[in-house]
Amino acid sequence: MVTIPQAVLAAPIAPGETALPEAKRFTREVLTAWAVMSVSARAERLVEELLADRTGEPVELAWIHCGQSIRLEVREKPKERTPASPAGASEWGEAYGPGVRARWATIDLPEEERAPEAGEERAAEARHGAGWLGFLADASDLLAGTLDPDMVPAIIAQVVVPRLATWCAVHTAEHAGGPLRLAYVWHADETQLDRLRRRLSDLPEAGADGPELQQIGEWQTLAFPLTARGRRLGVMRLGRRDTFPEEIVQIAEDLSRRAALSMDNARLYARQAAAKLALQRSLLPPELPVIPGLDFHVIYEPAGEDNEVGGDFYDLFPVGDGAWRFAIGDVCGTGPEAAAVTGLARHTLRLLAREGYGVAAVVGRLNQAILEEGERARFLTLLHGEIASGENGVDLTLLSAGHPEPLRLRPDGTVEPVATPQTLLGIFPEADYAAERVHLDPGDVLLAVTDGVTERRSGSRLLDDDGGLARLLADCAGLSARAVAERIRRAVQEFAAEPSTDDVAILALRVP
After folding, report:
1. What is this structure's pTM?
2. What are the start and end residues of every segment in region (Disordered) (predicted)?
3. How would you write 102-124 as a 3-class SS string?
């Protein structure tokens, strides 16, 4: 009797040390797809024997499901060899074709894992079904490739149609277990979409325990619950005019589980991203004020593609009686712990300043507040100051706690530091801080930056080596505050080819 192969899965195996591990991995995938893992140990031994002396040359590994047994073939170019009987094989031998020599061996399957005898029609279906392993792998890749929960239903429907069904509709619940709404529908014939949507609106809600079969007009429909981690997220409904083959039902059920997990992951990611964005935005100051007699500009660029706020922060706010306070700081570290210190610093500065505390008193109390955070505490560098209108210019009260020194630019291009460095915050409880007074004449510019500017690296060089920042600022004489800040930002970007890995904050104050 001629045995008709019910499925064939083959893969090229490149020569080298990875040949045997790759062949075993492929074998395990095949046995899993065919649900015959009980013979995996025997199958891997066959792979070892048939590839034992062939890891130095390319071969093709083919597994063939014959219903009552599975057969392994190792195909290569013909060579003179004396065949040996592989251990664990029910039958073995060699076969030759045009330019190909195949050494083969078969393993008899246990009774409960044997497939029924296949006629021509069944064999044709099985040969077609051999591609389902790749189909599910491709579908999984597509689903895993998006973290947008609104995209997942569209991917599900377009994966299903027309491979598994004529049309597919995905209903989702805004909250797990809540009422369903039609999220996406797709039809092999796009002209039928509107008609299909109207019919779907009249369908009863599908159950949540497993595939549910319904006959709706000329359509047979199958509804699969989308359930992940014990939560019902929606329903995937498939429709076709003929009966769903058992193989299609199994593939669709497997796909529904993968789709539900992908949808749940996307929703979890979206919730985390929304919470992160809300936290980040809470750390940014509200709209900056207008300060009479002062031109100012702020640039803030957190490192990382998905960050709106990093460890650096800035603020500029009124405190009454024609006075304003400003701050620019840098929290050591990243993540939620650094964000917590950023929020503590910004809100403490505002609260104490509006309660009438002077610059030095505010910084001292902020130092104590950070230390009281215990293990959650983070070091903080800070430049804090008060702005007040003075005679023929602006009076500043400044305190620099471990922060890169602020620089004053004179109209003639002279640049000088204007604050004495003091201890950064979050280290010594007994630290004593003192503020300094600085006067800005008309045309003067005060530049304050974080170490994302001064420590911008290109190879072994830093931007501020040998007074690099001061030289950049000296070339900005006569420019507006915005132009000064933008020129410094551009210099930071151009200093090295690779993107910056540190946050950048720049504050420029100029007396017109």
Report:
1. 0.57
2. 75-94
3. EEEEEEECCHHHCCCCCCHHHHH
pLDDT of residue 108: 79
All residues at 6 or more sequence positions from 57 whose CB lies less than 8 Å from its CB, including other chains: 15, 76, 77
- Length of the chain equals 512
For the record, the structure tokens of 277 come out as 């964005």
Token pair 């900056």 in the structure block, residue: 288
CA 315-319-324 angle, 5° bins: 55
| Residue whose entry in the numeric block shows the structure tokens 């894992």 | 113
CATH numbers and ranges of domains, the chain: 7-121 (3.30.565.10), 132-279 (3.30.450.40), 285-510 (3.60.40.10)
The string of DSSP codes covering 408-458 is: EE-TTS-EEE-S-EEPPBTS-TT-----EEEEE-TT-EEEEE-HHHHT-EE
Alpha-carbon distance of 379 to 367, in angstroms, equals 9
Q: What confidence score (pLDDT) does residue 464 get? A: 95
More confident residue, 111 or 380: 380
d(CA 296, CA 508): 5
Alpha carbons 253 and 229: distance in angstroms, whole number = 16
| C-beta atoms surrounding 184 within 10 Å | 18
300 has a pLDDT exceeding 60 = yes
Q: Give the pLDDT of residue 119.
A: 40
Fill in the DSSP letter of residue 511. -
Instruction: Say which amino acid occupies 305.
Output: E
Report whether 62 contacts 56 (CB < 8 A): no
Distance separating alpha carbons of residues 453 and 458, to the nearest angstrom: 12
pLDDT in tens, 142-184: 887 788 888 889 999 988 998 889 999 999 987 766 788 889 9
CA angle (292, 294, 300) in 5-degree steps: 120
How far apart, in Å, do the first and last CA atoms of the chain sit? 100
pLDDT at residue number 366? 95
As a whole number of angstroms, the distance between CA 232 and CA 243 comes to 27
d(CA 315, CA 345): 10
Report the range out of 20-24, 162-166, 319-323, 351-355 with the highest average pLDDT.
351-355
Alpha helices in 96-217 (DSSP H): 120-129, 132-144, 152-160, 193-200
What does the alpha-carbon distance between residue 406 and residue 449 come to, in Å, rounded to a whole number? 7
With a pLDDT cut of 70, the percent of the chain lying above it is 83
- Asked if 297 contacts 508 with a C-beta cutoff of 8 angstroms, the reply is yes
Whole-number mean pLDDT of the chain?
83
Residue 306, pLDDT score: 57
Give CA–CA dist 10/455, Å, rounded.
Answer: 55
Burial 308-318 (b: 16+ CB within 10 A, else e): ebbbbbbbbbe
Instruction: Tell me: pLDDT of 129 over 50.
Output: no
421 φ/ψ angles, rounded to the nearest 5 degrees: -65, 135
